[in-house]
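for ur thesis appendix - Transcriptional regulator MraZ. copy paste whatever u need, i formatted it the way the template wanted (i think)
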Amino acid sequence: MLIGTYSQKLDEKGRLNFPVRFRDEMGDQFYVTCWLDECLIALPAARFEQIFARLTESGMVKNRGLRRMLYAGAVEAVPDKQGRILLPPPLREHAGLDKEVVVIGVGDCVELWDPARWKAMQDSMRSGDMAAAMEELDL
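the 3d part is after this line
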């Protein structure tokens, strides 16, 4: 399971040292793409393919915007010998990533956040969104 939070730095070439714990879970090849809430998502190859199949089955017209967002910007991530992955400029721009990146495990995937956006997300969840979500799930 992908869990935990790590603060990482982007180098001048846009490479991110992907946490070892996440690399071990994700494997030698995974995908990174734009995600909701102005962050990026990293998905194991099998999960990425499952999402693609589900979107394809559920109809082109209904999901074309989501398909465009997920697949047009997607890149195959293969960590180098130092464990770094390259985040191309369009992905960094989507998520507002400059020098610092918060890398969080969310169960079956990993999200990459700008620190200020991540803090704002945490603050909004603390303000009642989390309680409402837990109540809806009967937790």
